[in-house]
Amino acid sequence: MQQQEHGNSALTLQQRICTLAGMLLTVLSLFAGWQPPHVPAWATVLGGTSVYQAQQAVPENGFRAGVWQILMVCSVVCGLLLLVRCENGRLCIPAVAGVAAAVICLQTALTHFHPMPGPALAIAGAVLMLVSAADRLRK
């Protein structure tokens, strides 16, 4: 990909697309199911689990699961760090912050993992942001 005249300090188009796609996936994951529907103990004791689940079959999304604050802040921080330039020959602090924010997103998604689409989208988004930030840090 082409870089601007500042050499290693400029972001490639691939890094920008990777970060923005990761942000999009992470934010969209909040609208998907994060936790399976809660079935109270009395429904399982009485044998009415299937009837109860049919009535209450709405999985909790990322907002109700309580992960939206962390994922929103970290994904927005990763996107905003695209606006900050790094100087040549120095440690790129925005890239380090981007790696940290992506790792926090990944850790949050793995901590709240269920076989549901929400955590899967968040993991994919965090990996994309992590790859982009690590690539920026490497250069």
Overview of this structure, please?
By secondary structure, the protein is mainly alpha-helical. It has one domain. Helix content is about 60%, strand content about 5%. The chain is built from six helices and two strands; from the N terminus they run H-E-H-H-E-H-H-H. The chain has helices spanning about 15-30, 40-45, 50-55, 70-80, 95-110, 115-139; strands at about 35, 60. The protein has a two-stranded antiparallel sheet with strand order 1-2. Helix 1 (about 15-30) runs antiparallel to helix 4, helix 1 (about 15-30) runs antiparallel to helix 6 and helix 5 packs antiparallel against helix 6 (about 115-139). The radius of gyration is 19 Å and the shape is elongated. The two termini are about 15 Å apart. Mean pLDDT is about 80; it is low at about 1-10.
Task: List key phrases describing it.
139 residues, mainly alpha, two-stranded antiparallel ribbon, 2 strands, 60% helix, disordered N terminus
What's the number of domains?
1
The count of β-strands is 2
What is the oligomeric state here?
A: single chain
Tell me the fraction of residues in β-strands, as a range: under 5%
Radius of gyration, whole Å: 19 Å
Order of strands across the biggest sheet?
A: 1-2
Beginning-to-end CA distance, first to last residue: 14 Å
Binned, the helix content reads: 55-70%
What is the residue-mean pLDDT, rounded to a whole number?
A: 80
Order of helices and strands: HEHHEHHH
- Unreliable residue stretches: 1-9
Name the overall outline: elongated
Structural class, from secondary structure content?
Answer: mainly alpha
